[in-house]
Design brief:
By secondary structure, the protein is of the alpha+beta class.
Length: 76
C-alpha cells in the first residue's frame, strides 16, 4: 500500500482516493494498513503517532488546526 501511495502522490493520480466522511473512517484506514495522503503533499502513517514521509525519512506531524479538517485528507 505504501508503494501505491508513493506512485499516486508522485503522479498526482488521486482518482482512487476520496475525502473521508468522518474521523472514524480516517483512522480505520490507518488500522487496515492504508497510507492516507495529507493535503496532496504527504503520505501519512500511524506509528503510535502520526508521521509523514519526506525524501529523507519519516517525520512527526505537528498538531495544527489543518490536521482536523477532513477535506485535507485523501484515503484509498
Amino acid at each position: 500500500m505504501l508503494l501505491y501511495a508513493i506512485e499516486s502522490l508522485h503522479s498526482y493520480s488521486f482518482e482512487n482516493y476520496y475525502n473521508p466522511k468522518n474521523y472514524d473512517e480516517l483512522f480505520k484506514a490507518f488500522d487496515v494498513g492504508v497510507f492516507p495522503i495529507y493535503k496532496e503533499r504527504y503520505i501519512v502513517a500511524n506509528f503510535s503517532k502520526l508521521m509523514y514521509l519526506e525524501s529523507n525519512g519519516w517525520r512527526s506531524m505537528v498538531a495544527t488546526e489543518d490536521i482536523f479538517k477532513l477535506e485535507n485528507w485523501l484515503i484509498y
